[in-house]
Amino acid sequence: MPMSPRKRAQAFRGVQYGILVLAVAAVAFFADWEKFGNAFFNFDAMGTQFPGIITTALVNTIIYTGLGFALGLALGLVLALMKLSSVAPYRWIATVYIEFFRGVPALLVFIALGFGVPLAFQIQFDTYSTAAIALGLVGSGYIAETLRAGIQAVPKGQVEAARSLGMSQSRAMVTVVIPQAFRIILPPLTNELILLTKDSSLIYILGLLDTQYELAKFGREGMNATNSMSPILLAGACYLLITVPLGYLSRYLERRAGRKRDEGLEVTA
């Protein structure tokens, strides 16, 4: 007698669970746990990373990310307004910029700013400026598109109401549209901050002093010094201290925005 779709789905899930249990059992039985522990959970090697991994690497990672995000947000807002401008050259410039920096690898931007610009123009930036500019340029392309979508999501009636009160187009944009757009785009903007946090690991390519190490560079140097993967695992855990709370914040803001949108629809209905 043929099985019903529900029975087939249950049988398929049972097979998947069985395969998973067998795989876990095989790993547990055949793995060299002593070697695995020494490689990834060597607490002596981890202990050598403190307090520097917190006081230097984690702090620098936050500083690099914060500077890059601030610059990216400012540039992104300008680009978003240019993209929505009625002046065609502004739209063309913004489109070319956004497509370029969204399509070029972030590592290439770091190399260009860290080595190409000094060679071509004899202009030397310090590490913090280079990190801020590189992350800002990369992030601004994505942030600009996010802001553009947020501005366009604001109901046109808001602008019309502001204009009816005697506001100019520019004042209505600054005082009415942009604040509402930021409330709409907070969740994706938080996701962009997470991406910039991870992109900050590319700063190692610039060549850093001990006091300028970020988490990835600090973990790599610790791995070379201890011949253990444990410092890298510890550096990854420090990244999670930043990205996991930001991820929860993004989901909370998304749910909150969804509830407000539903409430607005109910009032309208």
Automatic annotation (TrEMBL):
CDD domains: TM_PBP2
Keyword Repeat among UniProt keywords: no
Membrane topology: Multi-pass membrane protein
Main location: membrane
MF terms (GO), sorted A to Z: transmembrane transporter activity
Location of this chain's protein in the cell: Cell membrane
UniProt-listed Gene3D superfamilies: MetI-like
Record domain ABC transmembrane type-1: where: 58-250
UniProt keywords, alphabetically: Amino-acid transport, Cell membrane, Membrane, Transmembrane, Transmembrane helix, Transport
Membrane-traversing stretches: 12-33, 53-82, 103-125, 232-253
InterPro entries, sorted: AA_ABC_transptr_permease_3TM, ArtM/GltK/GlnP/TcyL/YhdX-like, MetI-like, MetI-like_sf
GO cellular component, one term: ATP-binding cassette (ABC) transporter complex
A GO BP annotation: amino acid transport
Pfam family for this entry, one: BPD_transp_1
Similarity comment: Belongs to the binding-protein-dependent transport system permease family.
Annotated NCBIfam families: HEQRo_perm_3TM (TIGR01726)
Protein name, UniProt field: Polar amino acid transport system permease protein
